[in-house]
Amino acid sequence: MSSEIGRLNAVLLHRPGVEIERMTPLNAHEALYSDILNKNIVDNEYRYFCGVFERVTKVFYVSDLLEELLEDDDLCNSLVTQSCAAEGCEYLVDELMQHSPKVIARELIEGFAYRKGKDPERFAERRYVLRPLYNLFFTRDASSSVYDRVLINSMSFDVRKRENLIYKAIFKHYFGCEVINAQDWNSKAHTEGGDVQIGRSDLLCIGEGIRTDAKGIEFLAQTFSDRPKFNIIVQQLPHQPDSFIHLDMVFTFLDRDRCMMYEPMLRKTAEFAGKATTWIEIDGGRVKHHDCKNMLEALKHVGFDMEPVFCGGDDLWVQQREQWHSGANFFALAPGKIIGYRRNSHTVDALDKAGFAVLNAEDVAEGRANIDDYNRCVVTFAASELPRAGGGARCMTMPINRDNI
């Protein structure tokens, strides 16, 4: 995979399950949520989101692949053992191994509840011995397709580290991919998929912030430094508020010459005042760092003349509102054919003015509209609950294969 926009041939999704209901207002922040979700509404919203993908590409679901992998006794034992060790409940391994692969898959994802008198009291307060994987439907965060390898991301928060075990098993043992992990190189290195975007075969765009750190970026630079020429554009991100956790919350590729941007990042105003943009040029093993005015200038240095569409349109107040609910977080189904939240109406209007036909996810999912009938289009899906989890269409999709462009 050599871009963010090549036609999508296969994708990995996870339907949000009961795990998203297994939090309270008291532990939502620990689960990295700013609010608790209504699963009944989430189910309806996600139905049309995944329905679009089922119409246009091959879709794999995490729970289905995990259950299939767990049919292998050795792999099952390894995954259960590692999962229990991560939570400090190694005593559960033998018990869980007596369950069917279907039940184990559900327990690894949805959690294993504390039982009074049977489990150590230290688990009573948090209610679950194996904590639910509240964020698993953000399939991009814990794993990223980067060229011919899969980056199993070294998550910055403990509540998400068990996700890595599942994705590593899926990509290594189901898809047969070569997997890499920054923490195999340095225990202090962190990367997350929302911060890693493929511009071209010789370019990565990376966000440096609360989730991906300098060590993680150094790992990626060293990993791909064996190429004759390679470039990395690094954009520093604010650590607060939570809506700036990843680069794809303020910047995503839409087409060969179009991108979605949060304007204060381009102008270096508000939270982005003083946030550096750095072009790292790697040529024959020699590394040079160049300070750039902004992302657009850095992209021009490497041959990208991008025209931005602004998240929220041209009004600063609206930009802030729509960025908060992932208004810059779009996923490309093919060059110039993207999907994102309908609720960000000013962003959708800006795309419309930029030549993107506006389609409803319901029509695409049910076959009444075809993205191939349009040169450029944005598929919008209704969402009031999903955005409250803190991510958008790109966050919820892990592309497995794209056409090279």
Task: Give structural notes.
The protein is an alpha/beta fold. Helix content is 29%, strand content 23%. It has 13 helices and 20 strands. A five-stranded mixed sheet has the order 8-9-10-13-14. Helix 2 packs across helix 5, helix 2 crosses helix 7 and helix 3 packs antiparallel against helix 7. The longest helix is centred in the N-terminal third of the chain and has 18 residues. The protein starts with 7 loop residues before the first strand and ends with a strand. The model has no long low-confidence stretch (mean pLDDT 95).
Short summary:
The protein is an alpha/beta fold and 405 residues long. Helices cover 29% and strands 23% of the residues.
Defining traits:
five-stranded mixed sheet; 23% strand; four-stranded mixed sheet; 20 strands; globular; 405 residues; alpha/beta
Tell me the fraction of residues in β-strands, as a range.
Answer: 15-25%
Q: Helical region count?
A: 13
Biggest beta-sheet profile:
5 strands, mixed
Radius of gyration: 21 Å
**Which structural class is indicated by helix and strand composition?**
alpha/beta
How many β-strand runs?
20
Low-confidence stretches: none
